[in-house]
Amino acid sequence: MYASREDIGYDFGDDSKVGNKPIKPNPNIDGGWAWMIVLSSFLVHILIMGSQMALGILNVEWLEEFNQSRGLTAWVSSLSMGITLIVGPFIGLFISMCGCRKTAIIGGILNALGWILSAYASNVHYLFLTFGVTAGVGSGMVYLPAVVMVGQYFQKRRALAQGLSTTGTGFGAFLMTALLKYLCTEFGWRNAMFIQGAISLNLCVCGALMRPLFPKDVVSEKHVVRSNSEDNQAKALSHSAETIKSNGVLSEEPEKKEEATNEEVLDSVQHIEIGGKSRNGKSMYGLRILKTVSQLTVTVRKGFAVWYSSYFGAASLFTNRVFVAFIIWALFAYSSFVIPFIHLPEIVKQYNLSSQNNIFPLTSIIAIVHIFGKVILGIISDLPCISTWNVFLMANFTLVTCILTLPLMQTYITLAVVCALIGFSSGYFSLMPVVTEDLVGTKHLANAYGIIICANGISALLGPPFAGWIYDMTHKYDFSFYISGLLYMVGIIFLLIQPCIQKKPPGGKSTEEAQV
Predict the structure, then answer these.
(1) Name one GO cellular component term (predicted).
(2) Alpha helices (runs of H) in 54-188, residue ranges in sequence order
(3) Total structural domains in the chain?
(4) Structural domain that includes position 470
(5) I need a surface site. Which of 112, 251, 359, 451 has the fewest CB within 10 A?
């Protein structure tokens, strides 16, 4: 369902070439260990995105336990879902410095810690910190590497691999809804969160499967190979320097001076360390610390420069009026999809439909049909006679219509039909990278999609609490869906009043690229 900027081809540490020297392709690309990466990403989507889509079960338990307003309680779920997406651009900094494997393992521990600490919550504000922030940041630290690694390991089959891995969201929403409902019934919500925290430790296993993809026989032109470990670091620093120069963040001369200075520091430390073997242990220990700090400083400076240029070097994107309208749409759209997942269990309870909903939850219907929606809409949009933009707009119109009509349905059958339509039409998430490429072109695709995902995170953060706040004032969920649906419609109108996106001309360039 979600995708990050790496879904569409932005890879950290892509050293396929150093200078002008071609490198033999790694046999694991598009095969071999690459499918283990897909499995790892699939499980990450189940454990993270699937769990977040099942938070409506816990939301009902929190309302009964703490007796707080629905608007305040909904902040717990929205914080976790929103922060997972919002921190994506900042998690990229960790990936560029530490790599995907370490980032994902640390995130898995942090996510599990958030679930376990939440089991001891004494009030809703405690859950804000433990579940909303701690588990949310941990989820973001695992989710982004999971998508990045799929992009690194696949070239020819990247679309297929990303599609297979992201279907874990739908499966996860179905499985986690049933699991949390069973655990809450049998053991209570506190023990359920503790058990879920233990299950979330499997994210560390998923992170361990994210084996770095290092090309063989790469020799850096600017670094001398001292050892295997230092060689890997030198290659990463050399690639970072080339990336920074190509993005225009640092000029060539300061970069050379900085690199030379850093190399002199490391060389001097190493020579002192070799020549000082006869010194006492304390001096050698201090030199090792100095060398480690120097290497870490170089890595942090280079990683930050690459990260800064990737996100804040795309100011020209905001001169594109259609892209700005797309951002406004993203700010309103995603909340309309998230609100049913959070508040449907409470709505079902008010309509006295709990017995039927327990047999087959409405949120599970959305999750299952959502899987088919992504696949079918993707196939339709790939047809030569069909415009992806038109399919995207039609899916949006269908979804906003379902959001506006859902309050009118008060039987299980009618609610199930509307929920199925919501799940199918929300499959347009798989079309978002394609639409973004048509808007800004291939050159700005990675940065543009990162901004769109961040806007979706803000929408997920504010949507559920807003719906709960409206309920607290009116004592009905009807107005929550009406207002969110109308705001969603405003976002669609912003897309319609802008110039239409044309299909790619025979030359293969998008409209924006053709104009340039």
Answers:
(1) membrane
(2) 55-66, 70-86, 88-98, 100-118, 124-127, 136-153, 158-166, 168-187
(3) 2
(4) 311-503
(5) 359
